[in-house]
Amino acid sequence: MDRQLPKVFVAEDEPSGLVLFQLALKDKFELKTATDGIAALTAIKSFLPAVVLLDVNMPGKNGYEVCKQLKEDAATRDAIIIFVSGADSIEERMHGYAVGGDDYVTKPFDPVELAAKVTRAVAVRQAMSQLAQEAGMAKGMATEVMANMGELGIVLLFMRNMFISHSYEDVARHLVAALRGYRLPAVLKIRGVLGCFEIGTSGIIKPLESELIDKLATGGRICDFEGRTIFNYGRVSILIKMMPTDNKEFYGRIKDHAAILAEGADARVATLDMDETIRIQRVALEGVIRDTQKTIGDTNQVYRALKLKNTSIMRELLQKVEDLYMSLGLSEIQEERLSRVINSACDQSSALYDEDLAVSAQLANIQQRLQEVLNFHK
Question: How far lies 337's CA from each of 68, 212, 343, in Å?
């Protein structure tokens, strides 16, 4: 029995563009096509593909209109929608996301990259199906939490959980649990010195959602657009995909609660980043201490060897001078004076090495004190 290929639908009004799609996808997917929006809607409802590639500009209905209708139909709302367009502005992408799009491909596209993107989209669609049952269970748990704790209780539980969060994943997991408690479909992204972590309340974050979060991260602390709100607090961004705009009082409270959650998550991530920075600095400092200790030890050995060699040279010099006394015809007093000068030079030379060793001892003391500081802060 042949393996069933994943279903992919392409809506493209340009014949040349349609050929490119078919060449890129026909061997890997069960492919159907349409050249206008109205025909695409009819075909998609009977074909029920996992992924739909929509040209933005089509006759009859454009890609945005087709997407909106697909998302309003229970039979087709779970299909992954990838828009295809020659435009690449943030406004176009935000509009595509607002009507339910999952990703965005800019023309002209690379066939290999397109096939890879569609393959990932099919995997996401399969994962979403697997998560649907888990999401239903989570919704039931969220209802129970709301009934037992109330809105503020969710915030308090979240703040308590921040104290026991030791990774970005821990922070994100507790943040998702709180958002589920408010029955808010959302996605979030954490950025820090350890990298990025992103997740959604459904377990999936769309590529277009991830891209929009990045592009809107500098757009202000709280940004509203088309029934959605993004909260940006430094290292944490939360995109709530469906705000309760029909209930103004609840909407206002949710904004306050979500802002507190984002700020609390950011504070915890900042602490985790600080811990990681301190750890990195500590490792670097320990390396410096080890290198310093080795250098001091090596230097002391060199000083001792040089001192011994210098002492030997000076003694040999003194012996040679004493051997010359008879031939120089010096008086006893002159010999004694010359011997004192040479001995004094020997003593001064040795003292120089002793001073160098004293400096090394001071450096060793500093190294020991640094090590004690490190041990104290373990």
Answer: 110, 91, 10
